[in-house]
Amino acid sequence: MRVAVDLHNHSCLSPCGSDDLTPSLLAVEAMEQGIQILALTDHNSARNLVAFSQACEICSLLGLYGLEVTTIEEVHVLTVFPNLEDALAFGSFIEFLLPPISNDPKLFGNQLVCDVTGTVIDRVDRLLISGTSLSFCDVVEEALSRDALVIPAHIDRFANSVLANLGFLPDLPYTALEAIHLPVQADTHNLTILTGSDAHSLDQVGRRTCYLELEEISYEALKAGLRNPAQVRYRK
């Protein structure tokens, strides 16, 4: 079956995300757009994943639990877990490795933690868009050791991408790659290339959804499908 997949989205926890993009509204908008497998991947934090999990259950979506980790080289890497508890543990680990820089909401934006109703229950003081102390290779190795999907984000972007910041794509056992424009003008080691919305506001949800031919809607089927680049179709 053809399954709509979007593994790169933010919420109001990311300082660059709209305050209106609560985890629940992300799930509702994705449901209305026909997305069936959806991940929330805020910058360097998992604190909105609990509400996201509850919202995905209500919306009958397969929710996956992620972070967009910033490496010490300022490269963005998507790390996506099937299990909420594992994602929360990884999120605490990543937040601990952020520098002690406070967020300035007027400069960077708010960092809001919400419950499933959209009520703000906390605000994160540490700036979440800072680079962690982990190298690109360390992030890949650590996330894979925790059984996460590891997907270098927007590899063809002019900033915060592996190609822009490192100059090449190291030959490592990534699950897949994410790009904005296709085809990618670089050696991608014959890996599956996904497109993701990288939504920071409600109107951006679903803008770069892609489709995979899967046997069923499950994490294991997704993981198997990502091993075969021929299984991916792109939104026109």
> In the CATH hierarchy, what is the architecture at level 2?
Alpha-Beta Barrel
How many strand segments? 11
And the CATH topology?
TIM Barrel
Biggest sheet features: 7 strands, mixed
The count of domains is 1
Poorly predicted ranges (pLDDT <50, ≥5 residues)?
Answer: none
**Distance between the terminal alpha carbons, to the nearest Å?**
19 Å
Mean pLDDT: 97
Order of helices and strands: EHEHEEHHEEHEHEEEHE
Shape assignment: globular
What class would the helix/strand composition place it in?
alpha/beta
By CATH, the superfamily comes out as Metal-dependent hydrolases
Work out the radius of gyration.
Answer: 16 Å
Q: What fraction of the residues are assigned to beta strands by DSSP?
A: 15-25%
SSE layout and pairings?
Layout: E1 2-6, H1 23-32, E2 37-43, H2 49-58, E3 62-70, E4 76-81, H3 84-96, H4 105-108, E5 112-114, E6 120-123, H5 136-145, E7 149-152, H6 162-166, E8 177-178, E9 193-194, E10 210-213, H7 219-225, E11 232-234
Parallel strand pairs: 1-2, 2-3, 8-9
Antiparallel strand pairs: 1-10, 3-4, 4-7, 5-6, 10-11
Helix pairs in contact: 1-2
What do you see in this structure?
This protein has 236 residues and is of the alpha/beta class. It has one domain (2-234): Metal-dependent hydrolases (TIM Barrel, Alpha-Beta Barrel), CATH 3.20.20. Helix content is 25%, strand content 21%. It is built from 7 helices and 11 strands. A 7-stranded mixed β-sheet has the order 7-4-3-2-1-10-11, sandwiched between helices. Helix 1 (23-32) runs parallel beside helix 2 (49-58). The chain is globular, with a radius of gyration of 16 Å.
